[in-house]
Amino acid sequence: MGFHLQTDFGGLPLASPIVVGACPMAMQEQSRAAMQAAGAGAIVLPSLFEEQVILWALNSGRIVTPKEQKILSRASQTRHNWACDNAESYLALVNRASSQQSIPIIASLNGFTAGGWTDFAGELEEAGAAAIELNVHHSRAREYASSQEIEATILNTVREVNAAITIPLFVKLGRNFTSVPHLACQLLSGAQGLILHGRAPSVDICLDSLRLVSRWMLSKECDDVEGLDMLMQVHGYCPAMPLAAGGGISQPDQLIKSLLAGADVAMVTSAIYRNGPDVIRTLLDGLTVFMEQHHIQDLRQLQTQRPLEFTNDEDRAAYIAALTAHHDESPVPATLHCDRWGHPTA
Q1: First to last CA, the chain
Q2: Which of 8, 72, 214, 224 could form a disulfide with 201 if both were Cys (CB 3.0 to 4.6 A apart)?
């Protein structure tokens, strides 16, 4: 029996349901070639940030707005963390990667305001991007009057970017929204796919300097799929929205569960950092074995098993059972380790 792993994500045909998430590894030709050889369906390039695009527009002679000028003021603080030095070099990267690889190359934009910078999406399409991922990481709450204003800003940004291109636009959302399923339905007016979820650096407090610090860490290796419940909720409420799962997918079981929960593709990044591009082949081999065991010939047939979700009564019962479950206490370790204040730690 032949097994077909081809899929479609928001109008973008893919040879497999594995998409390499945005990361600096994708800037290297050798890494992209290895990812493609291992079976990746598409590769997302690292993000180009809103302030970089505004700088490009300013250097091109366009007059920037006061709001854009305010955004530019932070460019000196973020410049040393940019994957690409400027927008021109990013366009060259998109053009080079799309010509070297035979799988789709997805450009990534990171911003949170609707403005002239969104026109740059058209430049990315001309450079050869097969699709654009829009990471709508919004700024702090004090800059908005309400949560509705945050969502309205995102919707306006998505519509403006979508109006500037003919290729698919995928929106990457964080977890801090009141109701992602309802927002997903609103995003149908401009987005061809939704990525759940974008990860932000964790914020910590340094007790020595009493300053805030941000740390970016790989997703933790675990048996559970991050956001599986949200995938089911969004797919169940808004089945018309194509979905990408993300957040620590590193094992075949996690890939299969994500596809059954409503995802059309899975974003994989941390697992590639840990185990190299061959982890993609491992994930796809596990998916193929599962399909063979269940006599499933292609991903469209696998999708007929959806939607898998609780009824309201089952959901409530499972919730209460999880909160009231008794767990055996772990034995006290023979060797005690202490924190900086001398208190025992596990």
Answers
A1: 50
A2: 214
